[in-house]
Design goal:
Blueprint (H helix, E strand, L loop, with lengths): L1 H18 L7 H30 L1
Length: 57
């Protein structure tokens, strides 16, 4: 089971590297990328809620 899963993982990573060849992802970079995406999402939600609140005033 683990060997098959490992092969699937490397296949996914390989295809991902083909798409993002200049960037060369690593697990740490993936975590940082997810954190950045979540942070941007939170900022967008806060800004939108502020704008919506001021529109309703």
């Amino acid at each position: 089971m683990r060997r098959i899963f490992g092969k699937d993982q490397t296949g996914l990573k390989r295809s991902r590297l083909d798409v993002w060849k200049p960037l060369e992802w690593q697990p740490a970079d993936n975590r940082n990328f997810i954190v950045v995406v979540l942070f941007v999402f939170v900022v967008v939600v806060v800004v939108f809620s502020e704008w919506y609140y001021t529109q309703n005033m």
